[in-house]
Amino acid sequence: MKTMSISENITKLTKQLSEDVTLVAVSKTKPVSDLMEAYKAGQRIFGENKIQEMASKWEEMPKDVQWHMIGHVQTNKVKYMAPFVSLIHAVDSFKLLKEINKQAKKNDRVIDCLLQIKIAEEDSKFGMDAADAGVLLASEELKSLQNIKIKGLMGMATFTENEKQLRSEFQKLKKCFNNLMNTYELSIISLGMSSDYIIAISEGSTMIRVGSAIFGERV
Ligand SMILES: *Cc1c(COP(=O)(O)O)cnc(C)c1O
What we know:
The chain is of the alpha/beta class. The protein has helices at residues 6-16, 32-40, 51-60, 78-81, 94-106, 130-138, 140-143, 163-184, 197-202, 212-215; strands at 22-26, 45-48, 66-69, 87-91, 111-117, 148-155, 188-190, 207-210.
């Protein structure tokens, strides 16, 4: 069977998605030539999980690309992406939000963020409990951060092919979103990767993060 090219994968995915689902092309570890092939097929949103790698690709790629940081963020590296990052998916502490706000202010920008919520049954190091996210969103301190905007929630499910478990974990995020959305004007649910984005969309995802189904397996 002929394997499909990057541009064919982009075209196929884009056709498959309704307009209210945003595709983030996860290009971590891939060379700029691969990203350019996706760009030429019309893709403008790219996701990376390492700040330095994202910054060097930002320098090389056309300036209308929107860069999403999808990985865990170390506070001391926020400054390297603050001039250009368009959405930070995995914010999981107030301390990190404060640093993003500080660096955004230095760059005279407002940076959009998502709160990462713990949904996986397996023990994951990163992410907040739904209750803590509610407390953070309701806090007075948050209002003082004028250079960040929390746009929604992000989740990482357990690495499993068990559809029942995936659905139950995805539903946890959707429920948390429903509880918070009206009070805080949240609009984005970042959920779903190459192997499970169809299930994620059926459970309410509005933003999928797809890597290997576009660029091929990573080594
Ligand atoms: C790598 C990565 C993805 C994409 O994974 P694929 O299985 O290649 O689609 C999505 N989200 C996060 C947070 C990732 O680190």
